[in-house]
Automatic annotation (TrEMBL):
The keyword Transmembrane helix applies. It comes from the Bacteria. Keywords: Membrane, Transmembrane, Transmembrane helix. Gene3D superfamilies: 3.40.50.2300. InterPro entries: Peripla_BP_I. CDD domains: PBP1_ABC_transporter_LIVBP-like. The chain crosses the membrane at residues 184-204, 210-232. SUPFAM superfamilies: Periplasmic binding protein-like I (SSF53822). This is Uncharacterized protein.
Amino acid sequence: MGGDVTRLEGLLSLFQRLRERPTSRAGDRLRPLLLTIGTPHETRQVAHFFVEECMADGGPYSHITADGQSSFTDLALLLRHVSRDLSAHRPRFEPALRFPLLSMALWLLELRRMRLQQEQAGENEQAPRFSSNAQRQAWQLAGDLRAAEEDAHRRTLLGRGIRRRRQIVVPAQRPGERGRLASALVYLEQVAPIGVAVVALLSAGTAATLNLATAMLAAAVGIVFIAGQITARTRDWAGRRRYRWFTASRQTYLRGNRSSDFLGLALDVFFRDEPDPGTPLDDELERLLVAAFLQDLRHGYRRSIWRANWARVRYPVVVIDLFPAGHPSRDQTRRFVERVEELRRHEERFDPLVVVFPLASADEAARLAGSIRVPLAQAATVDLGMVREYEEGNPFWNEYLAEQRRVAVLGTRRAFQVDLGAGDGSSTEPIHRGRRRPWVAHPAMPWIAMGAILVASVTVITLQTVRYCSPVSVWHADNGECIGITDGSHIYAKRLAGVEKRIHRLNKDAVSSGKPYVTIVYLGPMTTDPQDRSPQADLMAGVHGELVGLSIAQEKHNEANGQPRLRILLANSGSRFRYAKQVADHIRKRAGEDPRIVAVIGFGQSRRQTDEAIDVLGKSALPMIGTTNTYDLTARRKTSFSPYYFRLAPSNWRLARHAAYWSRNGQLDGLQASSADVFYDASRDDRYSQNLARDFADAFKPGKVRIFAYSDPSQVPGKVEEACAAPAQLFYYAGRSDEFRSFINKVANTSCGGPLVVLGGDEVTKYVSDNGAELGRTDTLRLYYTPLAAKEAWDRRWVGGRPLQTFYTEFEPVVDSLVGRTAPANVRPSRTHAAIGYDAARTIINVAERIFGEQARTLPTAAAILSELTEPDQRAFPQGASGLLRFGPRTTGHAVEQKPVVLAKVEKNGATTVLQVCGHLVDSGQQGASCPPNP
């Protein structure tokens, strides 16, 4: 056999070149037949070598053997066998060739055969015993189609039968059996990598440019689409694009009266008569089957975006053995070859099929080659009339172009005739092996590319997930805090969860009510620094209180059917307002998109970043209400204050001036201090602490003042020890609440003489709110402070018979509902800050209501709110929980004129007593207090 192979090397190389698919640049080319001439032994041996070559490189092949068990009595059986072989034999992991058109045509012929059987058997004949449910369904469908009288009814029945059959892509081995269904896995191999990659890219891009929620929605829609496509590919729908070839203009082999659409053609096939008894197929049916088979092959080898199609580098081969004379398959194999070549000449189109056909003699091969040859035009003389030009063109020239096109498609030869018994094909060169599959076309490449894209996209989405705390507009800051804007749906801190949920519910009610509403944004520090593990760091009683005050104002207004209703957005600036500018940029952008945003309130801490946020929001002319910000120069630029910022709290100068007056004039339980030690935070970004300390020192003169500045909380104990070496009569604390515990602990445990009098600024209020009882029990000091509002200020001693302001009657029930009646003080909000937050919200509500009523129910804009705040109505002063509310001119920073300044003391039982109330708490009936003279 080795010698035989050597002699056949040239033939094997020719066979490989016939099978080799050209590159896309060279283009696909129709191959001629390979006719082998020799004895049955020679042709069978060559066929065996050809099959071994196909098996070695994995190319698709079908071997029609003379010694097999199958006998092909008609062309339909032969095509079943060939299509199944070509689909089964393929490179590893390569998607199988699919034959949906041929499978459908064979199924229609099976229905036709059953109809003929039913007609021959008569009406009383029992249905045969079928071995499969598919056969029983087909038999029933054939009977129903016969019984139906109207074509519309027949179309309905046939369409329903096709859907029930589902999509068959490879015919069954024998008629009546169910072929292979459309494989979802095969579809996945081709489409899923591209689909998943596209979905991943869209999701990652959406996550990077929009938000995580949209990214998840895009991913979900994409996955549902891919799943839907897979489901659709396993179903069959008559009359759709899948079978449009049957009614295309190129399909002229079988057309009947109904064949305007696929169902009509299917009925024409079903009701087609048998030409001769015992002859199941006529010429038209044979041509239809072969044409469908070749069209399926073209579809499998079309150069498109699907990797499986252009990755196939071997044409499919049908290798036929030499059958003995009289064998039924001999005529059918020859008929198959002739039909294929007949259709190729008729259509003049490429198909990828390569056929190896054996013949016993050279004469027989010549006759076959002559019957399928492509005749070339003879060089005949023509007269002038034959080259005449017509409106539709030149017939002579058009015929020449058609001949040229025919030769270009079919080639100059349609058969290679090789005599196996003559000559020696051995060569010094190895057998041609053909080009290998491009590495980019490897079946694993789409999955590798998809995996890389998926990993990259998941990485992007993961980074966005890490970046975003909430899929709306809350993201991780550099230090890990969650900053941004929410409607209350995102919980910034555990302590704030109850009030944030309350605001979220009130917001939903306002929006869903269908009534007009306006939106205000609260900007404040709603998280603590993750790097600071101290439980007292950045005490949240203040911001907790402001949110509760906002929610009380919102609920009372909306429940009273106030117009327009109020919606509140919560913008977290991060601890110590460190990200206020970034968040302000987002507020400004959002206000530009949503005209209902009419004001921003908060700005409670006097820091550099707070002023930067005010500058950013001022560019959008948004009115801003400062709650507890007391820095003298907040919102001041060069020679004037911002026209958009309005201050609710008294300035540091007023607070320090009153504190110094009370210290020197015996209001601290009789102490007339002539010396004071002042402690303040000298960190670069803090503008409150140093400003308050300097204001107090200036106001305390001519008393003796020593200044103790610290730039880091760890320095506080050392400063206390330094002061206690020769303590002054008064310790004035102008620092932040963050370090007040360290300050108090050191004072209480250091020999400073005692009990020591400590006077704190308004910032101390947050600490007192959480730790009042502990402070009262500390015998080594007596604590006084200047809160910005106090319920105790509404005592008859100060306001006479005036009733308690509405806010204070609502505060405790709301707090109890949020944190529980028995909750400890360190989880309850600061009532002082709640009063300020309530007043800020009521200020905007009052203005919005007035504009809405006076402007024919026109929804207020930010500009209208700003105008009204700048030039307030001169009717009665609005009454707030912290005093009368009317802003002064821009020259004073739009400060509330004569805003009350309160002196409070922490008693031994932890309760707070108000000792002095200076300023306009109520419009009339306010009792006198010991206050510094007006400057």
